[in-house]
């Protein structure tokens, strides 16, 4: 898909198809998993070479962000700005003094948000479009982190409750921790790439970038530092909830072992008594007693009850 925004227009972007007239003054050329015809058209419009997906992913770290012939080549190797997208895809960005070209391979809410903003804000330059796109990415990342924080609050209320939680429920809580950690990890990888881009663009600050755009990028860089601190808090909270779930599972298992231990100890005396009265000796006075059998049953019952009462008195059965 090839989406073209023209310079100085409030109208909706144009989705290019084969046979259409090429726009005269594009300001943003957005490629979404393009085919060969769309690549050829974008190359003719911008005068730039359109890389393949492997070219963006396999770039060396030093080449992912660079300048060449007045153009800034930027890339985010792992970009995922949607909770439903579990497979981060690379994003390539090339910005010159006249046009912004983006290359992506997955649908993105941030790109749609930036595209929709053209109806309210007339872009003055390609740097203005770049700032708008980065702001949209950061704003949605902040929203996703807030959603993760809200989910962690709910998960914390589920784990730390006065009612005793069984191991299956705690296992589900651990699975939820894993899901949230995966979502936050994808968000973290995206923000790392954006942070490197913002720092690089601010450090270079080409002549065609206005002071207003530089101020916006400075605010974005401050927001990214704040989100980085927020990410540390969420990571610590995730680790805490994971440790708490494991601790409660261990406690639950200890309760089970305690009950089994009490049961085994309480059954030792009756086994001994039954073994004694089950011996086949000829002279056992209890065999001739009228109430010998009820007495034996009562002694066995008392031998079970006494250890249980002793454990209860010591408080070893609390919580079971």
From TrEMBL:
InterPro entries: CorA_cytoplasmic_dom (IPR045861), CorA_TM1_TM2 (IPR045863), MgTranspt_CorA/ZnTranspt_ZntB (IPR002523)
Subcellular location field: Cell membrane
Transmembrane segments: 259-279, 291-311
Membrane topology label: Multi-pass membrane protein
Signal peptide: none
Keyword Iron: no
Pfam families the UniProt entry points to: CorA (PF01544)
Gene3D superfamilies registered for this protein in UniProt: CorA soluble domain-like, Magnesium transport protein CorA, transmembrane region
Primary location: membrane
Keywords associated with the record: Cell inner membrane, Cell membrane, Ion transport, Membrane, Transmembrane, Transmembrane helix, Transport, Zinc
Entry's family note: Belongs to the CorA metal ion transporter (MIT) (TC 1.A.35) family.
Protein name: Magnesium transporter
Source species: Luteibacter jiangsuensis
């Amino acid at each position: 898909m090839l989406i073209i925004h023209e310079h100085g227009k409030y109208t909706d972007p144009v989705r290019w198809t084969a046979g259409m007239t090429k726009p005269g003054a594009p300001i943003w050329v957005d490629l979404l998993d393009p085919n060969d015809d769309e690549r050829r058209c974008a190359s003719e419009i911008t005068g730039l070479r359109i890389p393949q997906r492997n070219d963006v992913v396999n770039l060396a770290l030093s080449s992912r962000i660079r300048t060449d012939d007045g153009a800034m080549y930027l890339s985010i190797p792992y970009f995922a700005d949607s909770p439903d997208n579990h497979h981060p895809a690379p994003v390539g960005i090339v910005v010159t003094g006249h046009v912004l070209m983006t290359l992506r391979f997955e649908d993105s809410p941030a790109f749609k948000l930036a595209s929709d903003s053209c109806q309210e804000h007339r872009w003055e330059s390609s740097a203005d479009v770049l700032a708008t796109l980065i702001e949209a990415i950061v704003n949605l990342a902040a929203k996703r982190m807030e959603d993760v924080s809200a989910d962690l609050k709910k998960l914390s209320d589920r784990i730390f409750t006065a009612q005793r939680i069984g191991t299956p429920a705690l296992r589900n809580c651990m699975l939820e921790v894993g899901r949230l950690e995966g979502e936050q990890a994808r968000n973290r990888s995206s923000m790392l790439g954006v942070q490197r881009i913002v720092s690089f663009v601010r450090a270079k600050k080409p002549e065609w970038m206005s002071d207003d755009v530089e101020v916006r990028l400075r605010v974005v860089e401050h927001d990214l530092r704040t989100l980085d601190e927020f990410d540390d808090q969420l990571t610590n909270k995730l680790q805490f909830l994971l440790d708490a779930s494991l601790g409660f599972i261990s406690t639950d298992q200890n309760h089970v072992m305690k009950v089994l231990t009490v049961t085994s100890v309480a059954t030792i005396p009756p086994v001994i008594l039954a073994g004694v009265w089950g011996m086949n000796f000829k002279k056992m006075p209890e065999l001739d007693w009228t109430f010998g059998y009820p007495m034996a049953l009562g002694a066995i019952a008392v031998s079970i009850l006494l250890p249980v009462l002793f454990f209860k008195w010591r408080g070893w059965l609390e919580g079971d």
